Amino acid sequence: MLRGLYTAASGMLTQQRQQEALSNNIANANTPGYKSDQTAIRAFPELLIEQMGGTNRIPTTQGGFNIPSSRQLGGLNTGVYVQETIPHYAQGDIVESGLPTDVAINQREVPDENGAIFFTVQNNDGDVRYTRNGNFTIDADGYLVTNQGYYVLDENGNNIQTDGTIDIISPEGVIPTAGGDITIGTQYVADANTLIKEGNDLFQGDAEAVPGDADYTLQQGALEQSNVNTAQSMTDMMNAYRLFESNQRVLRVYDESLGKAVTEIGRLS
Asked: Name one GO cellular component term (predicted).
């Protein structure tokens, strides 16, 4: 009976984590460049049930003796758990914003199935991070920064000084300035699933120069929308809620049965 309690409880915890991931996706449905999270649900290792306690009689000349015996009954699954949360890196829709500092990565084809191209930025600790959120602006010192205030880096890993304004960004990411042309830095990750999601639309991991056979452009005055499917996420949330309730009812039944076992069946007459 206790095993059933643990199985139902693990189901409730799994659906709770599923609900949290879906809620976060819906909350960021309007965040530019946001990549939705998907939960990978796995079952705990299956156990083999074996019946023990029986005996086999071995005859001998002196009357025989008993040896313990066992019999396999089959497998038993002990519940499920969320193994990991994986971002989904599919390209989001490109929507025009009309702002000259907004830039969208229009990724059409890359060499690797799970490959992705990112902007390079510098976080508050001075470390290089990657993002698909091209909602940029110009700070008081004339540097190109993200809407969280992180410096956008050029192809050489330096901060981008815009002289206070941006008129043109070419499809290759070139920005004409008084000091010469500056190219917005982009990097390529062959397997985007190896990246670590840090929050604030930032990813941490190893990247390399964009391959020459990658087909992509940078589109000025536009933003890549999140790839969250709001309708599907709402449906999945309802399913997770129903599954949570089902496990909750099972847990309640087990709790009532245990209560009867303690207060009624075990009562001395």
From this structure: bacterial-type flagellum basal body
